[in-house]
Amino acid sequence: MSIAYLGPPGSFTQAALSGLGVPPDQAVPYPTVRQALDAVRAGDASAAVVPWENSVEGSVTESVDALTSGRDLRIVGETLLRVQFALGIPTGTPDTPGSTPDGAPDGAPAWLGSVRQVLTHPIAHAQCRTWLGANLPRADVVTTASTAQAAKEVGTAATPGAAAIASPNTLRRYGLRIVADDIGDRHDAVTRFVKVTRPAAATDAPPTGVDRTSLVVPLADKMQHLHTVLQEFARSQVPLTAVLSRPGGCGLGTYSFLLECEGHIDDPGVGVVVASLTRHHSAYLLGSYPRADLGRLALSR
Ligand SMILES: O=C(O)C(=O)C[C@]1(C(=O)O)C=C[C@@H](O)C=C1
């Protein structure tokens, strides 16, 4: 069966598929993270790959919210990808010497004068803020469901004054001319992607010794329990790797927590913590899966 991913082709998510062992001929692009996950829920895809966390911008809350909107999906794997960004404009864009936009630096290249609008994914935008602020401070930023979608829209519509931020290969794929490369604020930016399945299909991976466990603790209006939740990890000496609060749905100040820790549910420490949080705080498991290795990063260009 097919494997859904955040498309269109050329997205960073597509570049991450090989790191999760997804054969290219099984991968099917979906327009949004939610639609990719819903395809798994509906049984139209056996698994989905979605972005989960970025080293510069933090958690991909769209993915966290879409995944935790039900208790019916499990994370079964993760991979890491180094992400690099470039700016592309339609090939027909004429250079307009002497018309650099308001606020652009003196002596800026001529093509800058033509760019009024930059399309990209919000997390890519967040990673290119410094470059955009210095070079295109007055350009409108239009967010798209993925960087590849931005490249596709700019390449297809060839709207005068529009540019896209995506990986260099993706800009080329959609026929754009790269006018600025390596425009990310951090050259070591990394995005973590996860593979998600229905629990019935999830052959829970056995412990490898280098695993991660993700769970949700929906504290909602019982915020005073947060410190006891965190103490459970300390007591069992289980290292927490992430704590993310999301709106709990019961008004301001109520939260649901995504917690991630080192170790596997079948490891004694993690097992004890998850069992206790499940019993006392209605926690539920999102998955125990092999942790990706920072030393074996793929580079997406
Ligand atoms: O826009 C894409 O191409 C994606 O795959 C999404 C995404 C993300 O959500 O973080 C993936 C990696 C980059 O950090 C920017 C965007």
UniProtKB/TrEMBL annotation:
Signal peptide, first to last residue: none
Gene Ontology annotations for the cellular component aspect, listed alphabetically: cytoplasm
SUPFAM superfamilies per the UniProt record, alphabetical: ACT-like, Periplasmic binding protein-like II
Residue intervals of the Prephenate dehydratase domain: 2-198
CDD domains assigned: ACT_CM-PDT (cd04905), PBP2_Aa-PDT_like (cd13632)
Keyword Flavoprotein recorded: no
Listed pathway(s): Amino-acid biosynthesis; L-phenylalanine biosynthesis; phenylpyruvate from prephenate: step 1/1
Region (Disordered): 91-110
Name of protein: prephenate dehydratase
